[in-house]
Design brief:
Largest interface: A-B, 80 and 83 residues
Number of strands of chain A: 40
CATH topology of the largest domain in chain B: Methylamine Dehydrogenase, Chain H
Low-confidence stretches of chain B: 280-286
Largest sheet of chain A: 4 strands, antiparallel
Number of strands of chain B: 14
Number of domains of chain B: 2
Shape of chain B: rod-shaped
Mean pLDDT of chain B: 91
Helix content of chain B: 40-55%
Structural class of chain A: mainly beta
CATH superfamily of the largest domain in chain B: YVTN repeat-like/Quinoprotein amine dehydrogenase
Number of helices of chain A: 1
Order of helices and strands of chain B: HHHEEEEEEEEEEEEEE
Largest sheet of chain B: 4 strands, antiparallel
Distance between the termini of chain A: 35 Å
Radius of gyration of chain B: 48 Å
Shape of chain A: elongated
Oligomer: heterodimer
Number of helices of chain B: 3
Distance between the termini of chain B: 166 Å
Chain lengths: 450, 286
């Protein structure tokens, strides 16, 4: 039976038909309505073709505002769709191992409950509480984006407590709040971001060589303007100082009392460089055309050139976790990855194939936007712009891979505990600590009689 | 006489001398014996020292060997744990394709045995597959989960029923965080339930309308239907509960005293047709 409070009308549904009972001055008047088959009209589904409704054990329910419809399929999935939409944009909820008997939305439509078999085929029964706003149990949506720039970028503090995004909603967002930048003209692009270790200070680098620092209580203050006015490629904090690397290789070291400038060799590629402490790693070619990594220590003014093996190809991404003294380079083609020990003599360069490509039939992958935790233990990267990969760098084993619609940018906190992910329409935060995964997986399953 | 005396004296002296000789010989013999036993004792001491040293060496060697054995055993045990963890993790990843809640439990087990890469990968994969899941909540073994409903209030309180065939049902109440807060025994096979307000749940399952008062945890049984109730729907705004039974009779229930859960009275709004009400009653707000 359904009750329409506006019209004060009640629908009574029995096995053969339905009737309407109208309450008029406290008296229920019953009239015949239609037949059972009209009770649920499958043609109203926007996902009816892609996800056909179930047969004998069919269940469905509407959210209170009618913007969401949940229904079951023959494969015991629950499809949550928007029936008002002409296109099928559905969430497919997989978790039941046999028939589903009952569905219910919470009042705001964000939670869904389903009752039925949930383990061992049809043997163990119970309910599933679904949170439609959280696709992955280890992820949390930090921000829903309505628009973003062509090349937005993310930053996260070393402890993972604070994040920022440039090019999100035509502004710089710092922990969900737009940053006021009076010194930056509207046409100027933000090309680099860095947050101090505990998230108290945000540094912004622009396409015309400005470095702006801001705290939560202050508006952005122009700290430095580089003499060459070249785009700032990277900003990073190390040992109480802020470093900036420009496209032409200029490095500025700013601390409370002084400004030091130095230079690394040649132009720096916007994707293929890595920094850690006072070390800047960039790439160039020697006289014979072979590829070299140029390792510059801007504090000591020392430079080292490390020749890479032939056929190393163009560069996809470089990461340099400072504490491990080991740089990792992924190529822009399907050649092996390289691990390069910095500071040893001779330089130890090892080639290894990503286990993502361990099977000859497997999809070839290009790793980009590679990040490695400070201790060199965990690597996160975007594979083929479509999925996020986590890898144990000590054993070179894949810990996880998640396919996304689009992974625009990722950053990892240097302790390796948090990953920030910019997708086409949101900013997500992932918990990367396996101990957290264990707690989550433990929490996800509950015995009602325990 | 003198001669006799002298002879006696000489004899006495001789005897004395002989006694002294004997005594000296005995003493010498004793000295020799003592020396012999001293040297024997020294030799014995040395032998004991040697034996002790040998024993200490042997013990040290044994301890050393035992330490190596312990280490090797620890290494072997660690390898065994890693292998076990890998095997459980592999099973968990296989299982995650068709039984996510079991795969979650198994991946936790794999990680507990050893924090192997495979266990971490199994945890990550099963969590990824458990898309949108906030919690799996199991009914006790052998019971059916028959119905689940949220309250109409915004605090996301929900209730579900676990039914043991041929027996009775248990109504579990939980919060939107997936935490269970109450468990109430009810009669019959509760196939439908509905919240009238945050503290009142009405149930199907018996000829009587069962009303749970969450404040007291009491279940009130209110007579009305002649057949078992199959469907219930509470409409908080109207303050009305509707119930349909196995003969197709529909009754409307209202409460005289809001504070008194047992003060419901009902009247028939649709007489029995012989066709049972079999589909749960739902609220349609628009």
């Amino acid at each position: 039976m359904e009750y329409d409070s506006d019209r004060n009308e009640l629908l009574i549904i029995d096995w053969e038909g339905r009737q309407a009972a109208t309450n008029s001055a406290g008296k229920w008047v019953v009239k015949s309505y239609a037949v059972m088959s009209d009770y649920f009209d499958a043609s109203t589904l926007s996902c009816g073709e892609k996800h056909p409704r179930g047969g004998r054990y069919f269940e469905h329910t509407w959210s209170a505002d009618r913007s969401r419809l949940a229904y079951t399929t023959e494969a015991n999935e629950i499809i949550v769709e928007n029936p008002r939409s002409s296109e099928c944009t559905a969430s497919v909820l997989v978790g039941h191992t046999h028939n589903i008997y009952s569905l219910a939305f919470s009042r705001d439509g964000n939670l869904l409950l389903s009752a039925g078999a949930i383990s061992l085929g049809d043997d163990r029964k119970g309910i599933v509480l679904w949170d439609l706003s959280r696709r992955r149990p280890f992820s949390r949506k930090l921000y829903s984006l309505s628009r973003r720039a062509f090349d937005p970028r993310l930053a996260v503090s070393a402890d993972g407590s604070s994040w920022a995004c440039a090019g999100c909603e035509d502004a710089v967002l710092w922990d969900n709040v737009p940053v006021d930048l009076p010194f930056v003209r509207s046409q100027t692009k933000i090309t680099a971001l860095a947050i101090s270790h505990r998230g108290t200070q945000l540094a912004i680098g622009t396409s015309d060589g400005q470095i702006v620092r801001t705290t939560r209580s202050r508006k952005g203050t122009l700290t430095h303007l580089s003499s060459d006015r070249e785009p700032i490629l990277k900003l990073w904090h190390s040992r109480l100082a802020l470093f900036a690397l420009s496209k032409t290789g200029g490095v500025v070291r700013l601390d409370d009392t002084s400004v030091n400038t130095s230079k690394v060799e040649g132009k720096v590629s916007s994707v293929c460089h890595a920094v850690g402490g006072s070390i800047v790693i960039s790439e160039s070619s020697d006289e014979d055309g072979a590829t070299e990594l140029v390792v510059s220590d801007v504090d000591r003014g020392a430079k080292t050139r490390i020749r890479l093996p032939p056929k190393s190809g163009s560069c996809g991404s470089v990461a340099f976790p400072e504490a491990s003294r080991t740089a990792v380079r992924s190529p822009g083609n399907y050649e092996p990855l390289l691990t390069i020990m910095i500071g040893t003599s001779p330089h130890n360069v090892n080639a290894w194939n990503s286990p993502l490509r361990a099977y000859p039939s497997g999809l070839k992958t290009l790793l980009s936007r590679m990040h490695i935790s400070k201790d060199g233990g965990l690597m996160a990267a975007v594979s083929n712009s479509m999925s996020v990969v986590l890898m144990n760098m000590a054993t070179k084993a894949i810990l996880g891979q998640v396919d996304m619609d689009e992974a625009v940018d990722i950053v990892m906190s240097s302790d390796g505990q948090k990953l920030l992910l910019l997708t086409s329409n949101s900013i997500e935060e992932w918990d990367l600590a396996p101990r957290k995964w264990q707690l989550l997986a433990t929490f996800l399953v509950l015995e009602s009689d325990a | 006489m003198v001669a006799v005396f002298l002879a006696a004296a000489a004899a006495f002296s001789y005897r004395q001398k002989t006694t002294a000789d004997v005594q000296r010989t005995i003493a010498e013999q004793k000295t020799k014996d003592a020396q012999l036993s001293l040297s024997a004792a020294t030799a014995a001491n040395q032998a004991r020292e040697e034996a002790l040293q040998n024993a200490t060496k042997a013990r040290d060697e044994a301890v050393h060997q035992s330490n190596i054995a312990t280490q090797q055993r620890a290494i072997a045990e660690e390898r065994l744990r890693v292998a076990r963890s890998q095997a459980i993790a592999s099973e968990s990843r296989r299982e995650s394709r068709f039984d996510i809640s079991a795969a979650l439990r198994r991946s936790v087990l794999a990680f507990g045995v050893n924090r192997s890469d495979e266990a971490k990968a199994a945890l990550f994969e099963t969590l990824t597959r458990a898309a949108f899941v906030r919690r799996f909540i199991f009914c006790p073994v052998g019971e059916f989960a028959t119905t689940v409903r949220f309250s109409h209030t915004s605090n996301n309180i929900f209730a579900f029923s676990c039914y043991r065939i041929g027996s009775n049902s248990t109504i579990h109440v939980g919060t939107g965080a997936g935490v269970l807060t109450a468990r109430i025994r009810a009669r019959g096979d509760v196939r439908d339930l509905s919240f009238l307000d945050a503290d009142t749940i009405v149930l199907s399952g018996t000829q009587t309308l069962q009303v749970i008062d969450l404040r007291s945890g009491m279940v009130h049984q209110i007579a009305g239907h002649a057949k078992a109730i199959a469907a219930v729907a509470a409409f908080p705004e109207a303050g009305v509960v509707l119930s349909g039974d196995g003969a197709g009779e529909v009754r409307a229930w209202s409460r005289r005293d809001k504070a008194e859960a047992s003060s419901f009275t009902s009247r028939v709004i649709r007489p029995a047709t012989g066709r049972p009400i079999t589909i749960g009653i739902r609220l349609r707000s628009q």
